[in-house]
């Protein structure tokens, strides 16, 4: 079984069925001054119908947007082909290399963005962007943590963002407000019981809740370990905030340097105070534990609270809160936080399709991504997209999570309800505030050629440290050695060049590389 198949979106799908600013402006040609307004006020296309590929856990938004965009500009959806997200390369790459691809546009997990861009078979999108008014506003609107890494490659735009995944700290407010627990915590740690701001505090808080509550089958947290090619990301939340990077600029691994081993020690200690089976905690079990109220805290993707609220009674559902992931305290007292943007989704167009279809396909994915449509789209339980643009956060955005999506009805088997996700504005607003806080310190996943191999090597060796087979330092040294072999196998010069896309984006965000 391909380990990439085991994603939280499988669970989300089941729930739904049952219920750059400056840099980007340099890319735009002067023709942008004579751009077409959007919406155009007339049909731009002769009722072109598109075929597209999507991973099976992203759900249905292109289908319900199709009649809107057909009316707006004469472009809609004819058919779709769905694939498992872990099979993205096997399903998409042959089509990109084909003279006659079976899709007119494709949506895929963003960690494969670089591999697809490297083929030279993705259509550059800058000239298409320049044809429409408001392009710069749109590019500025996409959150930099996504735009800089999952849409641009080698100085050109090849992707449009459709989904912004980010880790946040979920917690249950009632435990932090409990007077008895507050008194015990203060006596033990000589500070107030509060949502942890640093990883050492998170460890202490996890230990405290576990020791106080495990007799009631409630634990401090469940930290995802399996599958290893996802589990590494939860360690990286800790390590990146301590200044650990993947490689240096010469493609020498740095995951075993600095505070890397200390971060893994913290990760191991947190897991030690988890529930039975914590050493091999998988994504599905961590979801189930959170839904049942068995954990006080959970570092997880932002949408945990979205599909959890649908499965709980009001008391548990409204007890959910979110915050920025913990970080590390600096010498001046400030705290550095980093949240991993693991998975995400990008849309692209193949080079080898007719020009009129390219024009129509671009318009469709651009408008779908645009806040005109995506503000409502990301607040819909049948979409599968998390916020990725500035207007996806804040009070107006939170209101959309409480109401039906005006873009669609409930007249088919794909979307049977349309009543909003949350019942309480406070919960919705906190959900988005936490998402924004973490996106603003978002740290990218691997997104260049070889990403699955790097992820697998790192995750496997981290698992060995958790099981006690290797020490933290030994495990990271082993991973670094494997990474050297992977980069050499793929071509060191090519890997260095591709890694520059990460380096340049990270430096724009102010991260030290």
From TrEMBL:
It comes from the Bacteria. Residues 1-34 form the signal peptide. The keyword Protein biosynthesis does not apply. InterPro entries: Bact_solute-bd_prot1, SBP, TAT_signal. Its main location: periplasm. SUPFAM superfamilies: Periplasmic binding protein-like II. GO terms for cellular component: periplasmic space. Belongs to the bacterial solute-binding protein 1 family. PANTHER family: ARABINOSE-BINDING PROTEIN-RELATED, DIACETYLCHITOBIOSE BINDING PROTEIN DASA. This is ABC transporter substrate-binding protein.
